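pasting for ref
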Amino acid sequence: MFKQLTVFNVAVLSVALACAQFATAEEMQPGTVAGQVFGTAYSPVAPVSDGQAQVVYYRTSGMGQQKGAAHVYVDSEFHTGLLPGGFSTFCVVPGSRTLGAYLNDAPGYKGKNVDLFSANLEGGKTYFLKVQENGNGAPQAVTREEAERELVGSRSQVQALSRASKVQQCNNLPMAPVQAAQFKDYALSGDVLFAFGKSGQQDISYKGRTAIRELITQLHREHAKLERIEVVGHTDPIGAYAANEALGLKRAQTVRRLLIDGGLSASAITASSAGSSEPVTDECYGSKAEQVACNAPNRRVVVRVDVSGQ
């Protein structure tokens, strides 16, 4: 599991004028792709071995972004200039490193001279660092989940050649296979829950309320975690398709409300409709009464529990 980097210790160092004199020249070196500012779009990074610490340094795009590049320094040496919507992925030897991204950096070149921010980077870890737009050069450490939401659509920054001697090419390990989500379904008869064509909370029968209470007890007994539950309403094919979609959703929303009233977390439960698109049986003929009776298995509300990792 990737851990969030939470503490950066500020170590103000003495001015190194010689480094500042060469900063501009270093930044003007051509990048990794001639004539291009941005390279490939972001995709989730693979882990690295204990011999490296991996850093994904990025800058968000959108409103409120300052103009110009944010100069990224690693151990007082220029690495890249991040524009809005740009990112850079690199590795270093684990240990104490100074890191920062500075807007309006010239002529003081704080990332090379003063206001350096140090952190102890652990081997085998990946750190997601975001540029702060308020002028503070300190990296803003964020979780992988938050970073990858913000990195959607971002592209690698390639216009400048890294001059940071401690930066290494990452030797990534194979990505772990993504485990497909696994679910367990609990089907409640629509005819037990509701009168024909009904969907409101006031329409739930006594037997329906009892069935939902018993289901809540069963869910707690069978699952240590109930973090993701989808309630899906299903109808029979009698009537218009759009009407069946709406009826299925209303029934799912009603059952969701009763599950919440029974103590399950509202944030964990969603409601949706399959309408008549997923029938259990589809060979019902005869009179309308015969079709209604035959289609009883199709009228159901399914409570789908995510059991991945349990």
